[in-house]
Design a protein that fits this description.
The complex is a heterodimer of chains A (82) and B (189). Chain A is an all-alpha fold and 82 residues long. Chain A contains two helices and no strands. Chain B has 189 residues and is mostly helical. Classes of the chains: A mainly alpha (82), B mainly alpha (189).
Chain lengths: 82, 189
Amino acid sequence: MNERAALLKKLNAYAFAAYDWNLYLDTHPQDTDAIAMFHKMTNRANALKEEFESKYGPLTAMASQNMERWDWLDDPWPWEKG
Amino acid sequence: MWSYQKRLQYPVNVKNANPKLAQFIVAQYGGPNGELSASLRYLSQRFSMPNEMTKALLTDIGTEELAHLEIVGSLVRQLAKNATTTEIENSPFGQYFMNHGRGVFPADSTGMPFDANALAVSGDPIADLTEDLAAEQKARAVYDNILRVSDDPDVNDVIKFLRQREIVHFQRFGEALDQLQNTPANRVF
């Protein structure tokens, strides 16, 4: 697995964990332990997202930083083999 | 509103073309128990939900189903992309190929285009949540069927993830229905 794929895998893992807490919290909104876990996961995911985006380009159009060319267009797109 | 993240919720890397499997898996793209059906059902039902919990849950799960739609579409594309025309014409995918080539079109595994009759929005929260429980089990059952006919480990890895998510959704909808039914203001029968 190349570096890009490895970093994306880590980001996906933490983002997914955060999202699963999100769903759990939708039906258990008073669970403060779960809220703490949600934030633990989002903090990790956001750090990884910043690292990924700085190395490999934006994951959302709004995150594009390149002033020379519109890098949002860049391959690979997610449905293509990584 | 939606924003798009340029990553799949779960990665799809299929090494071997398999148009026969593509034809079966397209059932979860445009079929009655597939991800398009699920996302439209939940994203539509949420408008008539009575409380914050149900509005949030249906929005969030509906959004996740769109992410799953993308995963299933990726599977179909990767299974078809490098298939030869000989492989294609000797598989059930040959019929689909006539109108869609190696593209991804919302139909079920028999080629019937997506039909919104597969989903219901009654406007009654109890009926709608009950429908959602059934929908998640039906989707899980279709993923079971795909696993029965597929021996491709790259594909099966993704299918097992999608299948597990249906089980988790079922759990969440059950909690929502339970809470709704135990709220005195919502007791209509």
